[in-house]
Design brief:
Blueprint (H helix, E strand, L loop, with lengths): L7 H10 L3 H12 L6 E5 L1 E2 L2 E3 L3 H16 L3 E6 L9 H7 L6 H9 L6 H5 L8 H9 L15 E3 L6 E2 H12 L6 E7 L5 H17 L3 E7 L9 E2 L24 H7 L3 E5 L11 H29 L4 H10 L8 H8 L3 E8 L7 E6 L5 E6 L9 H5 L3 E2 L3 E5 L20 E7 L2 E7 L12 E6 L28
Parallel strand pairs: 2-3, 3-18, 4-7, 4-10, 7-8, 11-18
Antiparallel strand pairs: 1-12, 5-6, 9-17, 10-15, 11-14, 11-15, 12-13, 16-17
């Protein structure tokens, strides 16, 4: 392996970002010799890694969720730094001279009924040709929506006008995370140069809710520069920009494990920014968010009780929790049992696989022979195991309920539970030059690999992502019907 030679300027640049020389060398080592693919044991299925919550138990979970929320223990975390470039990719190709697809035709036919229409037609006559409309949507002198945060795109019709994804997530939190004082807590990770736009939108939304007696505590953070990663050029040396400085790239959503730790939360609900329905249709979604939180609260209570029993010399409850609740082989050694239980917890909603791109729940074989429940992306798996990905019955919609404090109320050191071997190396480009990039272990993949995990089947109707603007044409985003539990 070639040595990493750093100049005085490199050291100064890394130190300013909060990246140590040892970390820089570790990253370059991973880039030059990528970690091996993970090994799957088998897909999770109902009864083998995936639970279906019995109706008889759901009342108990709902009560536990209500108690946790009332006590102010629940926070919602939404990664919201992503731009809407992929959302408008199809229309951008059409604007650049590509042929119109069936989706494009539907979009132009239904545009007048979309929440986007007001802003578009304030800039261009509704009778204008398609090119003018596309320029109003995507041009730099227009709305330039492809470069805006997806969170700030009008998704749905609302009672007081178009509602952005950001506003819909706030409304959802108010429906399940209110404490006994009528306050909900929500945290968004955003890009620094867009935070002011979020705060301006929040001010108007807060006025509406506080008039109805509800309040919301919203906080923001950015991805830490210390989580950025180096890249390699075609010669295997650190990629440098035209001015000779090292290229430091955002490390992917796995970098947000630091933001989650800094949040100082207790029970944290995590959901993607683009997976949200109109507020008046959110009954089913809210119902299942509460069920996941209640199942988490019960699991945490049992794990804490088992640890206390272990302290008293009683191993029976610990064995039951590890074997029954977590589906794992219980260690015989008391200290190993304690280490198995004394870690962060997560309950992950999973939906029936409908061919959506993304990862799913699997039993994963660790290098130590230990088998654990993990959320896995196809890109993490070697070719000889791709058939197991295809055999998966369920999909990860990113619907997580997380417990991040120990039984003494102290925050876990979440970085201790990251599996560094799940970092991902991939070819990318920068200003026309090819490079090899490093992404940190994904937030709900390797960054949570050491957590104790439960998978729960949730209804497919709770999953309504907006990956492209054409998804806004689907009935679940029209705001025309209500979904009850």
């Amino acid at each position: 392996m070639m040595d990493l030679e750093l100049t005085a300027g490199d050291r100064e640049q890394l130190a300013a970002a909060g990246i140590s020389e040892d970390e820089a060398r570790r990253q370059v080592g991973l880039l030059r010799q990528p970690p091996p693919a993970i090994r799957l044991a088998r897909p999770c299925t109902l009864g083998d890694g995936i639970e279906r919550l019995a109706e008889a138990d759901q009342g108990r979970y709902l009560r536990l969720a209500s108690q946790a929320a009332a006590a102010g223990r629940v926070t919602k975390l939404v990664p919201a730094s992503g731009a809407a470039s992929r959302m408008f990719q199809g229309l951008q190709k059409l604007r650049e001279g590509g042929g119109a697809s069936a989706d494009d035709e539907r979009f132009f036919t239904q545009l007048p009924s979309l929440p986007l229409a007001g802003e578009v037609f304030s800039r261009v006559d509704p009778r204008a040709d398609r090119r003018q409309i596309l320029d109003a949507l995507l041009g730099e002198s227009g709305l330039d929506l492809g470069r805006q945060p997806k969170a700030l795109i009008p998704f749905h019709p609302g009672e007081s006008g178009p509602a952005t994804a950001f506003e819909e997530h706030l409304a959802e939190a108010l429906a399940y995370a209110l404490d006994e004082g009528g306050r909900a807590r929500v945290h968004f990770t955003v890009q620094a140069d867009h935070q002011e736009a979020f705060e301006n939108l929040l001010a108007g939304a807060r006025d509406r809710w506080e008039a109805s007696g509800q309040s919301i505590e919203v906080s923001f953070s950015q991805q830490h520069p210390a989580t950025d990663t180096l890249a390699l050029d075609d010669s295997g040396q650190p990629f440098r920009q035209a001015d000779g400085r090292l290229l430091l790239r955002p490390g992917g959503h796995g970098a947000l494990i630091v933001n989650l730790a800094d949040l100082g939360g207790d029970l944290v609900s995590i959901k993607n920014i683009d997976n949200v329905v109109p507020a008046k249709q959110s009954g089913l979604v809210v119902h299942w968010k509460r069920l996941l939180l209640g199942r988490l609260a019960e699991l945490q209570e049992r794990a804490f009780g088992a640890l206390e029993a272990l302290d008293a010399g009683d191993h029976r409850l610990a064995t039951e929790v590890v074997a029954h609740d977590l589906g794992q082989q219980a260690p015989a050694d008391p200290e190993a049992m304690r280490q198995r239980l004394d870690r962060p917890l997560r309950v992950c909603g999973v939906v029936r696989n409908q061919g959506e791109p993304g990862g799913g729940p699997y039993w994963v074989q660790g290098s130590d022979g230990h088998t654990s429940l993990q959320l896995v992306e196809a890109s993490q798996v070697a070719d000889d195991q791709k058939h197991l990905i295809a055999e998966g019955t369920h999909f990860n919609p990113v619907d997580l309920a997380c417990a991040v404090r120990d039984r003494h109320g102290r925050p876990f050191d979440l970085e201790r539970f990251i599996d560094p071997a799940t970092a991902f190396v991939a070819p990318k480009s920068h200003q026309g030059r090819t490079l090899t990039a490093l992404e940190r272990p994904g937030l709900w993949n390797g960054a949570m690999a050491g957590w104790n995990t439960i998978f729960v089947e949730v209804p497919l109707k709770t999953f309504a992502p907006v990956k492209t603007v054409y998804d806004l044409l689907r009935p679940e985003h029209s705001g025309s019907r209500a979904e009850a539990p």
